[in-house]
Structures are given as structure tokens and as C-alpha cells.
Give the backbone structure.
Amino acid sequence: MKQGSRFWAWLVFGVGTTYFILPLLATFEFSLRKRRGEYSFDAYRSVFEDPNFQTTFTYSVVVAIFTILLGVLLVVPTAYWIRLRLPNLRPVVEFITLLPLVIPAIVIVFGYIRMFGSNSTLPFLATARGTDVLLVIGYAVLALPYMYRAVDTGLRTIDVRTLTEAAQILGAGWTTIIARIILPNVLIAVLSGAFLSFAIVIGEFTMASLLNRPAFGPYLQNIGANSAYEPSALAIISFAITWGCMSLIQILSRFAPKSANRPN
Amino acid sequence: MADPFLSIQHVRKSFGATTVVEDFSLDVEPGEFVSFLGPSGCGKTTVLRMVAGFEEPSAGKIVVAGKDITRLKPNQRNVGMVFQAYALFPNLTVAQNIAFGLKVAGMPKADADRRVAEMLDIIKLPQMGDRYPYQLSGGQQQRIALARAIAPKPKLLLLDEPLSALDAKVRVSLREEIRSIQKKLGITTIFVTHDQEEALSISDRIAVMYGGKAEQVGTPFEIYNRPATKFVANFVGTLNVLEGTVTDAASGMVRVNSQEVALKGKLNGSKSGDTLSLALRPEAISLGRQPGRDSSLAGEISEVHFLGSVIRVRVGIGGSTVSLDTFNSPATPPPAVGEKAEISFASSDMLVLH
Ligand SMILES: Nc1ncnc2c1ncn2[C@@H]1O[C@H](COP(=O)(O)OP(=O)(O)OP(=O)(O)O)[C@@H](O)[C@H]1O
Ligand SMILES: [Mg+2]
């Protein structure tokens, strides 16, 4: 009986892995076939040499960094305050942060286009810079579910209330408390939220495309429509970036500050 | 007497419809060490948190050094506090923890470093500056928390059951250390505890709290020997309670289990026929007649516990039992269960509980 269930477990695992790995291997194999008759990294070279790759990728990285900054500034104080003072609002806030998963990005971006058009009261879309700002805001919204959950989990590992009061009675104000006590203690959680945001922003297509910004997502789509081997190479590159981010989260979580409540 | 340093005046605190602290008043002299003693949930922490500024009183006033601080924010009060839960900042080293308040106050780094070293000396952990809180034992963490609280030279030190998470031995040594540091620095201190021995052993005065009120405020000697209420008498120390009926209010005669006892001048206001609760500390009772003990009651020995240097004897008197301790003496064997016995006490030691 035990043997049997183990067999089935391995079988399911094997099928799942194959389902996941096989297309990846196939894509990789295909991306190496640009030169006729032998395997080569020519497709990768042509991707990296494409100036459009460089500009769009740089653009998306910069947008991702601003998205992360905005997300951290928005989420850390909010999650902290909810835990400290408004614990019964938590279900509400959790629900709100989940909305971006439920509402398609295309709906959000059409909403933005209607709200912030060039003849509205807040004409974000009137200039390219304004549109960039709007894109960052939109991405921060898309990353909200991940960022909020990561930070909230981080806050759960410390005694937020006692640490806050200990800092307060020593004369600290809110900025000092958040910057010197709360943020450093949830830094690992914040970073994992940050890498998730990064992964989302780098691959995002809908918003960037509809707001007509030169981001990496639309570039991927464009290449995919116009050449044969480069899209496979790009898929592998994107995949490597995403997995790089995930592994960094794993590595960083080893360095999480140890709780003082469990002395050894 | 000097003006009180801390004056808590008719403070009340309600959370919604429940009143947790009711009309609490207390004056604390400069440099005094006052304990709040009481059972769980009686409002000790709540009063302390109002002094710290974490809760706002629903009514009343808190004055420190002549200044009304009732509405001041915690970070403007210059008060030091040690919490029950370990509250060191996990991301900072011991030295950085102690320096936190100094840095916030803008003390130059060199001065702060010197002060941190001085604090580490005072708490006798001079080598620990570079450690992180998770590398310390519970007792060490609470010492660091104390050092951190007193480093900025606060006017007032508040300690909320700082020892309750520690084991018994550490608890005793650390409480004495806290007291000696407090004396050395002359810092006015409020210490919250529900451990009566802790309160009795280190306090200048104790406020015994019950149901959000201060039942009695006095020195440990007064609290123990002259409890003002039944609650205080029962809560602090061991007490033998006997029921008695006043037979002659004028001469102070009370009948206990059909035996008469004279309690001159103790019955203030009781009339003949009233029933009273009479209480005696175990150490105020001796077995057999003793010089200086003017009253006695006859009973029967119901239990004998040999504890080494002392023998705890329980004597049944009618329906109630009285505990008393006698010293072990190698020459005389301990009393046996079932023997007739007489207990004696000074009528002046008898507490009449109202
Ligand atoms: N924020 C709050 N909201 C509602 N009730 C509260 C709040 N804080 C305390 N209480 C209630 O007030 C009462 C007194 O609490 P407090 O913490 O002051 O007791 P305590 O004497 O310190 O007890 P312990 O010895 O267990 O620490 C308790 O019944 C508690 O449930
Ligand atoms: Mg308490």
C-alpha cells in the first residue's frame, strides 16, 4: 500500500515536471538552431546586439525600480499601521490588495486612459513623462497583492506593538520608528516583494502596450511576431531573469534577522 | 514632606463600556520605588501605560515634577520603560539598542559610546556590546532592556513585570540588582508585579490594586502587618481567618468557636451580635502558651509538615484550620496529628477584617 502510494506520487511528480520542463527544453533547443546544421548562440547574440532590446530592457528595469520604491513607500507604512492600530480593518485591506488579481490589467488601463486623458483634471497622459508615472502607478497596483502579502508576513514575525512602544518611549517619532526599527526587521520580506514586483514589471505587456511605452513586454511581443529564433532566445532569457529573482528571494530569506523572542 | 515627583490624580480609564481603572490616585516621592501589586487583570498595566502615555486617561490628571503630562505623547515624556515581553530591537546590537534613545535625542557619538559603556558596566555585562539580542539569555535581555531604558537619564522609570518570563533564581537576583541600580541612580520608579514577595522585598511603598482601584498604599511593613481591607489581608501573605461573633462590644469580647477572646480597642464600631472575620499571620501564633501572647484558643492538631528548619502545623479550631510555623528543635519531637493543642497569640496581632 505504502509502496503503491509512493509510486503514484512519483508518477504525478514526473508528469508535472515533464509538463513544465519539456516545453522549456524544446524552446531552448530551438533557440540554439539559428545557424543551419549546428547548435549556436547566434540568436542570443542577435538579441543582445539589438539596440531595441537594450533600450526597452533598460526602460523596464528603471520602471521596475520606481515601481518597487512606490510599492515599498505605500505598503510598508500601510501594513504596519493596520497591524498596529487597525487590526480589524485587515480583512478589508487584504481584499483590496487582492483586487488587481481579479480585475484584468486591460480594465485597469482603460480606466486610466479615461480618467487621466490629456483633457482631464489630472492629465498624466498629456506628456511621455506623465505616462511613465502612470505606468509606474499601474505596476505598483499590479504588484500590490504580492508586496502586501510579503510585508504583512514579515511583520508577523516581530512584535510590532511592543517594539513600536519601546522606540516611542525612548523618544522616537514615526519616521525613526519605521526607518530604523520596522523596515530593517522586515527588509527580507520587502526584498522578496521587490523581486516579485521586478519579475512582474519586466514581463508585463498589456499596460505598457496600451499606454504606448517602450517597455520590454511589447518588445518581446514585437520580436515574436517578426522573427523565428530570437523569440525563443528571449523567452529563455526572461525565464532566467524571473528564476534569478526567485532564487535571490530564497537566498535572502536565509539572512532574515533572528527573532529575539527565541533565545537559544 | 517634599512635593510629590509623580502625582496620579483621580485617574479613570474605560475601554468602551467597561471601566478598567477607577478613581486611581497616588503620589510618588522623588527617588521612591513604588510597586503596583495585584491579581491579573486588576489594571496595573493600564495605569502604567497611562503614565507612559500609551493610553489616554478617560478622566483625571497625571503630573510629573509639577507639570501636567496627561496629554503628552510618549516620546515627549522622558520616561524609561522596561516591558514584560522581550522588547529589544532584534536588528540592532546590544550597544546600538542602549544607544537608541541617546541617538534619537541627538547626543554626539563619542558621548553616546561612553554612556553605553557606563551602562554595560552598571548592568555587569561589559563584554556584550556587540552581541545581538537573539544571542542573549532572557535575564541578559531584560538587563539590556533596563540599561536601554535608563541610558537617556529619564525622570521616571516604569517596569511592567520585567521579571515574569524569567526563572525563579534569576528573578530573585535580578530584582535585587534592579533595586540597587535604582537606589544608586536615585531614579523614581514604578514596578508592576503580581508577585507579592517581589513587591514586599524591594519596594519603598506598595500600592495593592484590585478591580481597578488602589485598595491600600503603604510600606511593605504596613501592607503586611496592617492590611486595610480584607482583600489586601488575603492577597498579601498567608492568613488564617476565623469567624467570630461580638459578645460584648464595650469590653471587646469576641466568641470564636465557643471560646472567648478579648480584643480591646480593635472592634471600632462593631455592635454586640455582629459577626467578624478575624485574621492572624502564621508567625503571630505559637503552639502552647508563650510569654507576651495574651490570648489563646484550644483545638486539635490536624496536620504536621516537617520542612527542615521549620515545622508547619495545622490546628483545627471548630470548623476552621489555623496554620502556624514552629522551629525544629532536635530535643523535642514534633507534635502528633490528633493531639489536643492550645495556640496562643497577642490580641494586638489579631487583624479584624471589615
Ligand atoms: N485595549 C484594551 N481594550 C479593552 N480592554 C482592555 C484593553 N487593555 C486592557 N483591557 C482590560 O483591562 C483590564 C486590566 O488590564 P491590565 O492589562 O491593566 O491588567 P494587569 O493588572 O496588568 O494584569 P496582568 O497581571 O495580567 O498583566 C483587563 O480586564 C483587560 O482585559
Ligand atoms: Mg499587566
